[in-house]
Amino acid sequence: MSKYFTSAYRFGILGGALSVVSFIVLSLIYGDATNLNLVFGYVITPISIFIAIKIFKEYANAGYLSFAEGMSVGFVCYMVLASISCAGIWLTLMFWPDLFQEIKTSKLDVLSNNKDSIVSQLGVESYDMTLKSLSNLSQWDIGFNDAIWKIIPGLFFTIIISIILRKNPN
Length: 170
What we know:
By secondary structure, the chain is mostly helical. The chain has one domain (2-96, 140-165). 88% of the residues lie in helices and 0% in strands. It has helices at residues 2-30, 34-60, 67-95, 97-113, 115-122, 124-135, 139-165. Helix 2 (34-60) packs antiparallel against helix 3 and helix 2 (34-60) packs parallel to helix 7 (139-165). The protein is elongated. The relative contact order is 0.19.
């Protein structure tokens, strides 16, 4: 079983660590780096999945890859990546409360600046519910949101990459 997941763990850990590092670096530059880190995640997630599946196919599976094997390796890779990213961002914000407050303030400012547009499109109830939700924002919410936005594209990319790299023995 470890032959299936060695490359997945390795590249999931690497991708998760790069995601946490990018969050910290982008936070030093921009303050609220949550949106930019999501964009970075859209780049690092498929790269990590592709390399993990490719390494598994070439070095652990004699050049063959079934769709199920690709999906399994990709799943482990993006779940490890998302878990490390979530934990790293959560811990960063726990130890750096000023950054968390800056992110929260930034999100509340964006909401208040777009109040008229939100109310006209979605109604006052939706705006009030969003305001209440943002007021109760925690460090965990930011880390968990980042993880979700690595898992959803991770599943999509895993399906595509598994189909592209699939090669069954004759």
